[in-house]
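Let's practice the habit of predicting before peeking. Look at the sequence and jot down your guess about where helices and strands might fall. Then scroll down.
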Amino acid sequence: MKLPPLRRIALFFALLALAALVAMPMYWLVVSAFKTSDEIFTPTPRWLPAGLDWHNFVEAWQSAAFGRYFINSIAVTLAILLLQLATSSLAAFALARRRFACRGIILFAVIGALIIPIQVTFLANFITLQHFGWLDSYPALVAPFAASAFGTFLLRQAFLAVPEALEDAARLDGCTGLAFLWHFLLPLSRPTVLAFTLVALVAHWNDYFWPLIVTNRDAIRTLPIGLAMFVTQEVTTDWNLLMAATLFVAAPMLVVFFFTQRYFIRSHMHAGLKR
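Done guessing? Here is the structure:
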């Protein structure tokens, strides 16, 4: 239904105001990262810095081991992501395309895991890792997140939308089991796979609580913990340096989302639709 011109104009300005409200914290973060210390606190807000002080990024980078934090975050996040994609796709394939005893119970357990807050499992995971001697190591950061109930359920729903006739045709051509998963299910469910990838990527890149519990050394810490250490080691907080350091943490995910947002939006457009 086409809206009248006045209503369209009103809707446009309402959406513009909402977008500005959402973007304002990020804008202020970026602007503050380029300001000098004297420009941070002024009687009236300064919406633009007097000049681009790139030295803030150099000083913030050298004030903490951000290079090591970056490597740790990339390694841990990619390891978790690959493990979750592998385990979730295999589990979803079994739950969606195979008939076996207790399948309903297993699916119920997966849905139950979605309901339980992940923080409830931290104590049991910590004791288990302590028993294996994995505390303060990379396995401690990766192992508890090797499987994802959310990913399993999401991919199962996507696999169910693929017609069984396609699997029957593939079976006639000799493509069965994992080959059907790799060559048909995953490509046809690409928007859902990419949406889950984005969600998992952002969640584990920004994870703070669990790495804080299981790490004690800079050699193992990830970016969110490094940012917190950067704040606590300062006697007086240099907010321009803090904003520059925060931009280190946020920038990679912003870049990833910018280049993959069309797939994320497409996954929501396909949600609930039969292919």
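How did you do? The chain has a mean pLDDT of 86.
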